[in-house]
Amino acid sequence: MPEIATLEYQVSFPADFSGPSEFEWESKGYLPNVTVAFSDGRSVRLFFYDVVRAGQQVEVTGALVEPNLILVRNIDRPSILAAIREAFEQGYFAESHR
User: Fold this and answer.
1) Which of 6, 9, 48, 75 is the most exposed, having the fewest neighbouring CB atoms within 10 Å of its CB?
2) Rounded (5°) CA angle 45-26-93
3) Cα–Cα distance measured from residue 57 to residue 39, given in angstroms and rounded to the nearest whole number
4) Among 52, 19, 17, which Cα is nearest to 31's?
5) What is the distance between the alpha carbons of residues 72 and 76, in angstroms, rounded to a whole number?
6) Is the Cβ–Cβ distance between 53 and 64 less than 8 Å?
7) Residues whose CB falls within 8 Å of the CB of residue 36, separated by 6 or more in sequence, listed in order
8) pTM recorded for the entire structure
9) 28-47, pLDDT tens digit by residue?
């Protein structure tokens, strides 16, 4: 029987998303440039919005368009990591989605 490779991933947050600046990003309601690197060499950059900020953006501009956008309840590490895990488990990062 052939061996099935298990795809793993590592999440990298922007350099300015640490310590007190995490609260600043949470207050802004968005976080760009979160990178997910996969064991097969691929990587993807994600953009996170919280639902309140996303709604405000739509009210102002009529739309919210960002590549690889994921909505979360809060802009914090636990929420972002949980969303990435959910997307991974649902197959969002599979080759067919690229």
Assistant:
1) 6
2) 25
3) 35
4) 17
5) 9
6) no
7) 9, 10, 11, 12, 43, 44, 46, 84, 88, 93
8) 0.86
9) 999 999 999 998 899 999 99
